[in-house]
């Protein structure tokens, strides 16, 4: 059962996947709002969300007049259908687009976005220079990446996640040329410790 639930969180499928997608929308609202604040959206922003899920963050971002385009990338066809439904007006207007794809091979052009972000999707990435280089590639010069995740719960730090951040993610970002790489602490949500890793191209 745990394996089934983990797979649904990674790549929701069918009606059960729809349920998990909407559940994640409700669970992750505090860190979603916090992450969007971190983006510091300005005029003519072009934003990519990696692991867009059911499209709640996209819809929230699209309410801001500074945003020109938001693209959502996800592995799950079920989640993309939910995100398209949630953002159907923006999709019709051309200010939102949804793509099936993987962070290790982002199907988008170089220097396309001023902001790239993800919320609770990094746990399912293959963290290596290729993955991080794809994020770097699609960012415009001076564009920023914001990767939000949890690194513990109820006062306990998860050493596996912390080791991934300090031993793989941040070194890869610095190696590939990201500047101002740092960790910022966010709100605790349901006891989980929220942090974000930030970097600038």
Automatic annotation (TrEMBL):
What Enzyme Commission number does this protein have?
2.1.-.-
Major enzyme class: transferase
Per its record, what are the GO molecular function terms?
methyltransferase activity
- Classification via Pfam families: Methyltransf_11
Q: Where is the Methyltransferase type domain?
A: 48-146
Organism, as annotated = Fictibacillus fluitans
Keywords (A to Z) from UniProt: Methyltransferase, Transferase
The UniProt entry, under PANTHER family, shows: METHYLTRANSFERASE
Taxonomy, superkingdom: Bacteria
Cited InterPro entries: Methyltransf_11, Methyltransf_Superfamily, SAM-dependent_MTases_sf
Task: State the protein's name.
Answer: Class I SAM-dependent methyltransferase
What are its GO biological-process terms?
methylation
């Amino acid at each position: 059962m745990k394996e089934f639930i983990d797979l649904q969180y990674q790549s929701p499928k069918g009606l059960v996947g729809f349920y998990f997608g909407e559940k994640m929308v409700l669970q992750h609202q505090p860190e979603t709002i916090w992450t969007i604040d971190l983006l510091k959206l300005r005029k003519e922003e072009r934003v990519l969300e990696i692991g867009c899920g059911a499209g709640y963050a996209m819809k929230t971002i699209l309410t801001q007049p500074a945003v020109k385009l938001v693209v959502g990338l996800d592995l799950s066809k079920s989640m993309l259908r939910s995100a398209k439904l949630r953002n159907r007006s923006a999709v019709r207007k051309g200010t939102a687009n949804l793509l099936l794809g993987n962070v290790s091979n982002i199907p988008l052009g170089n220097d396309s976005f001023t902001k790239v972000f993800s919320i609770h999707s990094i746990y399912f990435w293959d963290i290596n220079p290729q993955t991080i280089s794809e994020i770097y590639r699609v960012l415009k010069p001076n564009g920023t990446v914001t990767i939000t995740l949890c690194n513990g719960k109820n006062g306990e730090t998860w050493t596996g996640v912390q080791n991934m951040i300090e031993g793989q993610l941040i070194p890869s970002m610095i190696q590939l040329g990201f500047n101002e790489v740092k960790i910022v602490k966010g709100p605790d949500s349901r006891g989980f410790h929220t942090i974000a890793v930030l970097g600038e191209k």
